[in-house]
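Lecture 7 notes: from sequence to structure.

We start with a single chain of 291 residues. Read the sequence below before looking at the structure.
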Amino acid sequence: MKGPIVRITPNELHIKDASFYDEIYAGSGRIRNKDERFVKTFSAPHAMVSITDHAYHRVRRGLLGEFFSQRSVIKMEPIINGAIEKLSQRLHEACQTGAVINMDAAFAAMTADVITRHAWGQSGNYLDHGNFNKQWKDAMAGTMASRVLFRHFPYMLHILMAVPLPILLKLDPGVADILKIEGLVRRLSVENVNRGIVEKQEGKTIFDALNNVSVPPEQRTAKHLIDEGHILLLAGTETTAKALSTCLCYLLLAENKNVLLALQSELRQAFPNVSTWPKWTEAQKLPYLVC
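Now the structure, written as tokens:
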């Protein structure tokens, strides 16, 4: 098998050609429906990520667009800075005692605290856990990894869902941590539904927008919010946390010492006052951070 395009299943192509990116991820003017078999692996049929119809997905995505805009990021700076400060304090304490920190778990805890606050208006407080609730992070990673298997063997997902919970807990104790995720998302989502239809615009959260009066009643049920919550928590945590872990590992490698020194020098010159939080808009102007 040669060439940049290989058929890996009767209905799937594997494409290794960067120039084809815009053809697959087309702009708003071109219709692209998702493969129904692919989205089933998310086990969240009411979430936006599982919507296969292009037009319907665009409508749902429009409800959340403002929450991930540059303006929204600027408004979130105090929340993000607070989480960073809490993590920095934990790292300082570990430095004083000589404790070992799992940075994968630490970054996941920080990003989880930010996304839960942004989505529901209250933090999950993962940074307060002694080990940053590492078992939750491991359970989340296991959930993500299993989707690759379920994608090719979808019947296994149905079998797993049919296994009684007590048996699942004996076969895999990590299921208990997954259930904790389920419980947190369900509690926060149901609380949002019970507050009733949201009409206030200022200071609203992501789930206030999903429960807004402008959203059709059949799209703001508890099932919709719970499924959306699962995807937001998983995606909003793992993506940023993994990027931070990868960057940290790269910077700390001995052969990249000059890279770390260059970054530190640039930051010190741009933000000499360590007692003042740098603005995101200012950090974006630094050549090394945007190269």
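The mean pLDDT is 85. Keep this in mind for problem set 3.
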